[in-house]
Specification:
- By secondary structure, the protein is α/β, with parallel strands linked by helices.
- The protein has one domain: Alpha-Beta Barrel (TIM Barrel), CATH 3.20.20.140.
- The chain contains 15 helices and 21 strands.
- The strands form four sheets. The chain has an eight-stranded parallel β-sheet with strand order 8-11-12-13-14-15-16-17. Strands 3-2-7-18-19-20-21 form a seven-stranded mixed β-sheet.
- Strand 11, helix 2 (102-113) and strand 12 form a beta-alpha-beta unit.
- The radius of gyration is 23 Å and the shape is globular.
- The structure holds (2S)-3-(carbamoylamino)-2-methylpropanoic acid (URQ) and zinc ion (2 copies).
- One zinc ion is lined by residues 59, 61, 316, 318.
Length: 487
Amino acid sequence: MSTLIRGGTVVNADSTFRADVYCEGGNIKAIGENLDAPIDARVVDAGGGYVMPGGIDPHTHMELPFMGTVASEDFFTGTAAGMAGGNTMIIDFVIPNPEQGLIDAYQQWMQKAGKAAGDYSFHVAVTWWSDQVEKEMGILTRENGVNSFKHFMAYKNAIMVEDDVLMKSFRRCLELGAVPTVHAENGEVVYLMQKALLEAGITGPEGHPLSRPAEVEGEAANRAIAIAGMVGAPLYIVHVSCKDSLDAIARARSSGQRVYGEVLAQHLAVDDSVYRNKEWAQAAGHVMSPPFRPKHHQDALWAGLMNGTAQTTATDHCCFCEPQKAAGRDDFTKIPNGTAGVEDRMAVLWSEGVRKGRLTPQEFVAVTSANCAQIFNIYPRRGRVAVGSDAALVVWDPAGTRTISAKTHHQNVDFNVFEGMEVTGTCAVTVSDGKVVWENGQLDVEQGVGKYIPRPTFPVLYDAVQKRNEANRPRAVEREPSRHVTP
Ligand code: URQ
Ligand code: ZN
Ligand code: ZN
């Protein structure tokens, strides 16, 4: 299988140049002007569009069992929908039940992902702590290509972990050369605020954002940053939704602490007015955590992406159809949390980012693909159009337009938070593993051809950090033996 993408302009995070791109056997074999190709090569006319690295969505939850139900998107439909929007890899989450072995859960999720049409990798969540967890984190990094471990500071009485587990697990991540990541919301405070709101008779979706204001996220972000700083481990904060968390990240980064921020496309484009919609299903359809925020937080998030406080964009694609959301008809705390986005992230980032002068095309590549590949150590295999890199590419039509709708999207869910949004900037062609899987508005995908992408650990950086920790380790003061004689 060989594919020649002709007549495009290559855009990487650090360069833009006119060139054809020739792919063979799943890799990029040649990049240059007026390339020839074998007679049987598939020739794609880029039509002057941008040839960019395929998007990497570092935060999805396909088929997630959660809040008494299972997310409606599976690994086949979810990776396919992503490729319709230019996303050629997801990093999903293995989320063990408390007391469930991490390796047992990893095998469960690998089995589910076997149907994927597009490529995938996994963060593994630490939802409890024991010697077994500590041991299995090591096995997963050494044998299964896992280099990131997730910690939920929210969802009390479910998958939330306390500060002691954060400290132990962050230490273990440092030892292993793995990146600890957190869902930063103070789960104890959320739990109390939920109870108070229900007791006050607020049972509708408008209660959801009231139970988890920005302060709840900012406090947890600060706490996770402080613990990671004491351990000397890097930290990646997922779905940063507010200025409070961004400010915490900016403070940490300005002091030289290695903290990364991820921003969801949804939080960049939708604000908290959606929860005041009189139609219950419309308000409930937007219930996700962290919740949509007052508009000024969107400006802060865009500023964070533009000034480098936040490095990646994602979607936290976690879908529940209206009948599933209805579980919380009389109690907002029972509305399964999550929204869709894997198909629309890149168009929203281009339309709201590049077209409105917030991001350059190169910065678009950085925040949709290259930065994620670097943070999770698969660059330049992914995140770059280069000879030797994977043939996971998009041909982007900067002038293309479409209206986002659940009626036309490829995601397996009956709701879309971007409903009715007219975007400029569309994915014209997607190439995955060197094969054209999206062109002329048609998917050409196959169940099970998606590949697991292992992610190596970071030994060099971590060894240096551990040496620095050792040098700075507090030591007991040498004192003269005490002279007083005990009576
Ligand atoms: O918290 C998450 O990331 C998962 C459970 C998806 N749900 C959500 O509301 N973000
Ligand atoms: Zn989360
Ligand atoms: Zn999530």
